[in-house]
């Protein structure tokens, strides 16, 4: 799991309205609609006034990332939900959150970024939610994924969550991972759960020439170049750093959904806040 740096998220809160407008231009849908669908919720049924969210910084491991909690809070506030970042971190922050009446708590250590609903016991995991959120965005961008072939790059936690969500939508999957057995493990899990065969790719460059829809769930940098781009290409890229090489970004941006936190956090909120639907993890 790639650890975010302050620079990756410094403008998330201040640019969230522009980000949402860009997302609507690319996908035709708003962040709240995409996240609600990813979480199996109906955006219209979700009563944002019902919740108070606390984001609790955690100082363990490599410590607090400057601006991380504020970025998470900015996304949640944009979705119309009351939210605060606790003044204290760790155990004191948890107590503060509860004392100030939080219903839902968001917190991340170096291994997991989770949301928990103190009232219902529902939990959400950022990797699982990010995979689902990006699949919902890709589906909106492509006008549906049923019967379409998608190249998944990266069979880690996010890629695995995305693979299940895409298979559930009837997409045809190809998967590439630098660890080939990770690709085969994912292929067999998808087959066991959905009965559909996943093509394991062993040559990423060749696979990129043969696919119009790419889901980049890898920490690999700059493997997708101008030589691979075609006008009808659509890319979902939760991976940090970006898999698209800088020279290709100007051309790729209009058909790529990529953000460091927004879709994953929004999906987590709908997963733990929702009445039905599956939680993360
Ligand atoms: O500021 C804090 O509270 C830190 N403990 C946060 C550490 C987050 C570490 N995880 C990441 O940087 C990202 C997450 C967005 C999910 C996966 N990697």
What do these coordinates show?
The chain has 281 residues and is α/β, with parallel strands linked by helices. The protein folds into two domains: 6-126 and 262-273, 3-Layer(aba) Sandwich (Rossmann fold); 128-259, 3-Layer(aba) Sandwich (Rossmann fold), CATH 3.40.50. It is 41% helix and 15% strand. It is built from eleven helices and eleven strands. Strands 8-7-6-9-10-11 form a six-stranded parallel sheet. Strands 2-1-3-4-5 form a five-stranded mixed sheet, with helices on both faces. Strand 6 (149-153), helix 7 (157-168) and strand 7 form a beta-alpha-beta unit. Helix 3 crosses helix 11 (262-273), helix 6 (126-142) crosses helix 7 (157-168) and helix 6 packs across helix 11 (262-273). The two termini are 15 Å apart. Residues 1-4, 57-58, 64-65, 68-69, 108-110, 113, 126, 261 line the site of ligand 2YC.
Number of helices: 11
Q: Helical percent range?
A: 40-55%
**What count of structural domains?**
2
**What is the succession of H and E elements?**
HHHEHEHEEEHEHEHEHEEHEH
Bound molecules: ligand 2YC
CATH hierarchy: architecture of the largest domain: 3-Layer(aba) Sandwich
Measured by DSSP, the beta-strand proportion falls in 5-15%
> What name is given to the CATH topology of the largest domain?
Rossmann fold
Report how far the terminal alpha carbons are from each other: 15 Å
